[in-house]
């Protein structure tokens, strides 16, 4: 389960590149890339390496890990925490990572509603009694859209030096392809899943008949989950113990959304202000006429900040202008920037988010910036 | 208590505060000083008690310090060369003079706060990260400054440490093993359980109840058991050994600290323990023997490393994020939207063994971090300066610490590779070639948007890995994926700094509340408390409270009077109204300014003439050089030609229109290296901002000029005779591979008002070699010329030494200096070497009726939180208007002069009064501050040794 590395490291003859465990994880990552599940659970997550890899997949919003050994999970669980930098630029998606301590032979409602459940090198560690309950828990109770199960292919073992009985002392069994496939087909039939077989770790040339080193079954539920009715019958008693939970900062959270919007609004406003003042200065120098010109409403020509405004057409009436030592940048102008637009969605949302955080003109239609501030910064 | 009634009205210090806050104040050091000492305030300063007793204006007490003869050379040749300057009496417009754009002074405080200690490198990080996740693993590669002493070195530590035995009393001959004789006076810090210092009869000064930012740790267990673990046959791989031992948790228990051979457990195992394990690689059976080697006190030095690992885990349980070596809470960030900055509150924590037992040292800190990626930052630079974009980027980025978005590492940027892009490839550990774009996409699912950005270079410090692995010699980083920490250089002088400071300011009360809130969180989290209890550790509920001592006030001596300063220990009013100890008449000086500043120049001269009288200074009219523009070449050419043709110029004063580093540098290079003459650069732009302050500003400039000319401003009573005080500090260049610069300053008279200075450039990692010996020999030679004798006692204040470098000072620097005594016949002076540490995390508050305020200047702590290995004390010499005061730590590493701890404290405090750029006490002894200024000027501006002709003047002020 967690000793894949050694397994590959010391085989001598059979050396996989990349290491087999990485190939298994990559297989899952590819699957996630293909099906874009939102909620993924890894049963037998061990030191959480797979979960750590999956947290970078932007489609996933809920990640859960389950293991029978709490200490092995705890050892490296902190790498599942958000990084400090995640707070600087919160992601758009939300992400919650939870680790549970418990057995795959028990049902717990926290495992309901998942799109993908992975069991990488798990089943061979199960006692016979646990293995018996396993299909009911995973396929019957959790009933995710997709289940991935990987397990050693014992036909490959003769190619692995030093392996006498099993690849790892904790393995309770190791199946050949026929054994795994018959178990898988039976399980799939029983719970209305279809199953396809594949694997990772190609056999050496001339030995193709032994099959993959790791055999993998991908189970896909045949019918979409009908309704909540199926779940409502299910027991709600929690038996797993939560050992870790991390909620990532996300723009779905109002607090971070507000920060992001305010930051973007001020950033845009400052850029517009700067180009406006630059225009003003150059015109001022050109004509050098009476200073009242400064007070007059000044409409910058597009080339002044076309770079920043892009292809937006700013109506003259709502363009930014300078009055005294204040620069007014209409919110409409700011809203027309794609990033602001994308963040807020609606103009009303923009107004709501920046209320009290950005200095606005008396009628609330424009952002006000002081021109003097600018001088200081340059 | 002792100073009630001696306070002064706020007026004066406000004037100073206003000056110092500006980017260029008249005293360059004046502005340097105040921002540093405080840890940033909350509300305003405590109201100063009213009234002020002017101290003892006894003329008779003035020091026998005859002023040097004042040369009065003829003005004629110069004035014929240069046009005169009409000096009309005009109302002073706002004027502020400045020698140097002092944004730096302010920002260094920000940096220090944001990033205490040297920039953390990835390797430090790695050590921590590697040690953290694995329960029961010892952080072996301990940091010297975190660990009081690596295991096995304790014997060595004892030999030079605080004398525990009478054997250590013997005075040391020159050599690497000096010891400190226990002083006969009660000032010596004894071990644990010392009665309050105030109760000792001879201890001078008043006692004061103080709170420390340390929390006492109680050890509940009786002992920690140290075992030796042997594997037979030998198992080479450490991780395999870890795994094998881990399989026997049933025997060892869950709570272990194991480094591969030494195992620490909180429990006693029945002896002997023999276990078996199977090596998975070849199936070989390995016999494991666990042999008890020692029963340790739970507070043993050997336990400190893994206690710290445990405590880091506690911080993680509280959901704090490790950045570098400190913990932060980004979720609690304050956001400065206008500057695109975030300020993260956090803590620096470490468990250390002190004289008073085991303590958790906690400090409430902040981290400033840009919410923009480095790439965005580069875009901003690009928009501002197209032409010099690459230079500007290099200037602003190199030396900064960045944090990456995909892992939690921090790196210092050493260079930028403009020829590489993320499309270039590098070699993975597996030998596979991969482009940066593909790598980040594959490993972290990150899509790099801009494919044409350059890459940042980080060069890890050369270090040998314990397992002999070769380290990467270069790390390339993608700007888009990195974020800058600290305040960017270009904005350092703007109002941003003020805003950032305001965000970070903490009053002593706020600081205290943050500490107690951490303690509460640990207590309230069962998991966190449990983590500590696994090793039997429990924390006090509150910070540690003890007694400090306030040293007696020092008398300040001027030419005709002396006085006891006010409570906040500043004496601006006195020094600007009364004659300095000695003044040099300015008979022959040059004033250089661009034509458009001619009015300002006139005002300046007028102001100088009007304020010079009270100071006791004579200012003649200058010879002026009016420049047609303010280009650097114009300045340089004119100055060069004037100085080339005239060798009688005493002082060169330059007015520059804006704070331009390049121009400042050019002038200083001319005047300090090529044609040595004391020089004063005054920034006109900063002058014009201040209304009605011209007079006070010019007063300060004039005092500063007097120092540069060789005059003496004020002194304190120095009872030690035939004494030489030396200050040393090091300047390190921001970019790596550059030479560092050592400033060396030695006193030349017994009242410590004459100074001799030298500068030494050295390559990185180079030992100080012969240079130090030569410096000292020259200083002694000079001393002899001036006094016709050699000093009998030499006290060295060495700044810029971390805990881990103390041994270097002891083994290399001190013997070198002692070697130099042989140059003189029959010369065996006694010597004291004090290491000065400013960047420390210890601080204290006064506790008066549950009110937390900064203690008064002169507060000393020499017990409880002092080191068990060295003789050290904490002295808070300065007064800070805002925030928490951070004391300075002094470590006495050599004392053959039989000076008691109390004597050293008082001498140190006296020296803190003598920095002439600030009419008040400063954080460090004046010679250190002078050495710092000198090293900074030489390293940052001159890049060259200043001319030897200036060695007897404070030209670097």
Automatic annotation (TrEMBL), chain A:
Record-level GO BP terms: piRNA processing; RNA methylation; siRNA processing
Name of the featured protein: Small RNA 2'-O-methyltransferase
Residue ranges crossing the lipid bilayer per the database entry: none
EC code(s) of this entry: 2.1.1.386
Superkingdom of the source species: Eukaryota
GO MF: metal ion binding; RNA binding; small RNA 2'-O-methyltransferase activity
A single GO cellular-component term on record: cytoplasm
Reactions performed catalytically: small RNA 3'-end nucleotide + S-adenosyl-L-methionine = small RNA 3'-end 2'-O-methylnucleotide + S-adenosyl-L-homocysteine + H(+)
Keywords assigned: Magnesium, Metal-binding, Methyltransferase, RNA-binding, RNA-mediated gene silencing, S-adenosyl-L-methionine, Transferase
Keyword Repeat annotated: no
Required cofactor names: Mg(2+)
SUPFAM superfamilies, alphabetized: S-adenosyl-L-methionine-dependent methyltransferases
Enzyme's top EC category: transferase
Recorded family membership: Belongs to the methyltransferase superfamily. HEN1 family.
